[in-house]
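Model it.
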Amino acid sequence: MTTSIKIDFVSDVSCPWCVIGLKGLQQALANLGDAVHADIHFQPFELNPEMAAEGQDISEHIAEKYGSTPEQMAQSRAMMRERGFDLGFTFNMQQRGRIYNTFDAHRLLHWADLEGRQQPLKEALFEAYFTNGENPAAHAVLLRLAGEVGLDQVVAAQILASDAYGADVREREQFFQSQGISSVPAIIINERHLISGGQAPEVFEQALRQIIALS
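Modeled.
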């Protein structure tokens, strides 16, 4: 018997632990096989909503925002690389020199959800930023990725040139913040059960099995 579940994956394009959380969740769902069918929707969360268009040096940003020392940053990067490698994702930290505004990426992701191509675009954005060091705020990058995942680039260009879906993204952000979400990733199952952070696949699998048993 297959149990259907809805998953709201609240995250930001520039969040490395969101990559780790998504890969862990996907592995857990693969392990569960036919026991579960997951309908995943990526919900917007901006870690740095006031970030300027040109971005900021990432080491400078992390030092200012979190007070991290160079040694702590190096340790965190090494941990992310290792976790990513174990999950089949490549973090090229030397490529990721800046952090950028992600609002336009979230607008495009909102549209991609309506078009049934949200997850491929989300994964393409993660790879573009964390593996290839590309700017997820750059419209040229966003348009190329949209085309690569099968979205209409003409429509994508029209969206980016306007304020389309901006109000929708803001509404979604405010809703999840009102529900107490202040850090990401936040994985909400069936609008009731919260799993926080970039958990290991076995943690996700155990939690999903418990939720399925309650269904």
